Amino acid sequence: MTAMSTQPPRCAVVHTPAWPLVAAVMNGLAARGPEYAPDQPLAIMRSQRVLCCSPVAWRDGVRPGMRRRQAQGACPHVVLVADDPDRDARCFEPVVRSVGELVPLLDIESPGSLLMATRGPSRYVGGDAALTMRLTDLAMSGLSAAVASRIDPATLLSVGGGLGVGVADGRLAATLAARWAIRRGEPVVVEPGSAATAAFLAPHPVSALGAVAGCDVGLVDLLQRLGLRRFGDVAALSPHHLVDRFGALGHTVHRLVSGTDDSAPSALPPPPDLTIVRLFDDPVTQFDMLVFAAKSLVDELGRYFAERGQVCTRVRVEAETEHGETSVRVWHRAEGMNESAMVDRVRWQLDGWINGADPPSAGVTKIALIPLEIRGDAGTQEGFWGGRTAADDAAARAITRVMALVGPAGVTVASWRGGRDPREQYRMVPVADVGADGTTVHARPTDSTAPRWPGAIPTPSPALVHHQPVGVRVLDADGHAVSVSGRGFVSSAPTVLCREHGHASVTAWAGPWPVEERWWDERARRVARFQLVVQTSDGPRAYLAEVSSGQWWLVAEYA
Amino acid sequence: MNVSMARHTGGSRAVGATAGKVDISALRAGIPAVMAHERLLPVHPVLAPLFGVAPGEPGLVRGHTVVCSGSAAMSCALAVMAAPTRAGSWAGVVGLPSVGVAAAAELGVELSRTIFVADTSTSSKTSSDMAAILSALIDGVEVLVLSRRVVAAVSDGVMRKLHTRMQSRGSVLVLVGDPGSISADVRVNASTVMWEGVGAGNGHLQRRRVNIELDARRRGRPTRADVWLPDQHGGLSVCDQTSLGTVSSGTVSSGTVSSGNVVSLRRTG
């Protein structure tokens, strides 16, 4: 197997299979809903089918996936509980908090299932076996604190099928180890190393891929019908064959079943939410008042960043009116925005919106600032040679002022995008979005080995690309309109170009170069392109023309 | 050329005020020596013989207004702004939404130092706004490219003020198209002589011979040159005098210059 390059991180999983039942019982004990006894036959219903059932109900013949009537037929005194994801999450919180005392960084895969990286915690408590014991104790103590010791946590958990703790390499192996631990009645620790992990995974049925790893049911079914019933069968196949048959999905499946899935559990604390929102009870219509309100928001943010020695380089500014119109813009400044720079940007945005072509119809009720990119404030290092020059600084200042005058969308730089037509090769991006330091703009690849766009018009490019293509007529020598057939053949040689203000004779032409683009969606384009050289009073002029559905357009001029 | 005058008048006035009596030699000593490269912006090597103020120091004189006209005006303006942006100057293009950015890149314009400003004069904005935009830009960019629509949107008086400001900042104004009442320091007329590479249904546009005629104020007779604008790679190159005889007149010469250079295009998508 060639896919053994990366070692998956070692993970621990704490798992309860039928957590919704535990949550329902806990909810009843906390007097937030109907009370259920743990020894009653219980089943959770979702979409008129049984989602999961307690061991007592299972013994009486209730199975997940049954309809209501079937379940009641199998066990007439079964208590059916409606599914409530909020309740499940709420009741799981004490367990998360309790385990969080030992392991602060947790992935809550679903209510009832916790995933964590074990590297730090295992060292702290002295090994994987000790860690599983601590995790079990912590989960139990969290539960008993939540139910105020009115019920034994082990009894409570038995409603949901018990609590399993497993440690293994990788997310999938750890989850399966935790499930296996429930059946064994004690924690399972799979030895580290890819061989041990593969050996542990091999006997598991492929149906676990659907239940645990979230793989498509159809895929699991197909694997079973192909005679691949266990993980080991799939892992024994060459990954190339799986990729041939299933594409990228095949590669994922192979990594999962051979125990080399390296998607890591989160080991980073969640980023703080720095969104600052100001809601106005009375809609504000005066521009100055809005800017003033924005200034107080910005000051608040500025204090936060100053305390931490940070600077914000990208911020999203949102404003909303009483009628629900919104203005959302992302602002970027590579060297960081201090308070005044940020207020300026809010002011430009509001000014452009309120005094612009499409002003809002009501007062503003909400302003929000959402910092998107933050970095340590290391100051601005001036370049020694070849860095920022005085001209760059002067240009940046001038651009800022012009943006204030014409609005942020009116000041743009060109960024290479690639394409077949001169119109689409470059995209004009607002300077406000990318900054004016020229580093974030894509330049055209100058490398001669860079792949060319097939079907692109060869150099030289036209110096004038019309914003609005000019509709024209092109006639042949007999005065008939020149057309292009579906197979890309020209009906006759173009001779005369008829524009609004007069005719001109075509002295040379080349083409047609047909293009059929994006036929799969509504942006479909089917045109044939020509180059026309036309004799005018002040010498020859060359145009790039397009024919689409029989209509000729001049799209660019080689001016 | 008294271009750097505007910079020094301020200094001399200060000296004169304090001394009370004007001492010419002291004033001369106070004037910093202006190096040629400080009052000149670089110009494309092919255009250099045309722009040459004096032998050995070709360049765009700061503070000058360059008017590009003729059928190849746009390409010509792009060629003029290419060398300064390469050398680190910033350029502002105002009111030319249809400028071919790909052609600009091929002519050597450094796009990361080129700012495109939308022409807002057609919407509700008035000409005073355009004047404010232009004066803000002049402070920051050294090459300002304007269309004649923008010039028409600004009154003559405002334009003169901008011109003065531009001279004191040392930037160059490039106008594309008919300048109207603007007094131009350099007039460049670029007229297409012929296109090469395209025949009757074969080949593709490869290069264009352009006759450039440059007429500068306070200069003798106009200078002329034939250049390829654009050449096969979209750039600007000298039109070799010896090859002129071999190229037949007319446009159908795909066989002579374009051998093997036609990139076959196929149906794509």
What this model shows, in words?
The complex is a heterodimer of chains A (559) and B (269). Chain A is α+β, with helices and mostly antiparallel strands and 559 residues long. In chain A, 35% of the residues lie in helices and 28% in strands. In chain A, the strands form 5 sheets. Chain A has a 6-stranded antiparallel β-barrel with strand order 15-16-17-18-19-20. In chain A, a hairpin with a 4-residue loop joins β10 (310-321) and β11 (326-337). The radius of gyration of chain A is 34 Å and the shape is extended. The two termini of chain A are 60 Å apart. Chain B is an alpha/beta fold and 269 residues long. Chain B has 2 domains: 41-188, 3-Layer(aba) Sandwich (Rossmann fold), CATH 3.40.50; 190-257, no CATH class. In chain B, 34% of the residues lie in helices and 23% in strands. Chain B is built from 11 helices and 11 strands. Chain B has helices at 5-19, 24-30, 36-39, 48-51, 73-86, 101-106, 127-140, 148-153, 156-169, 241-244, 254-257, and strands at residues 40-41, 60-61, 65-69, 91-94, 114-117, 143-147, 172-176, 186-198, 203-216, 223-228, 237-238. Chain B has a 9-stranded mixed β-sheet, with helices on both faces. Chain B has a two-stranded antiparallel sheet with strand order 1-2. In chain B, a hairpin with a 4-residue loop joins β8 (186-198) and β9. In chain B, α7 (127-140) runs parallel beside α9 (156-169). Chain B is globular, with a radius of gyration of 21 Å. The chains are: A alpha+beta (559), B alpha/beta (269). At the A-B interface, α17, β13, β15, β17 and β18 of A face α5, α6, β5, α7 and β8 of B. β13 of chain A pairs antiparallel with β5 of chain B, so a sheet runs across the interface.
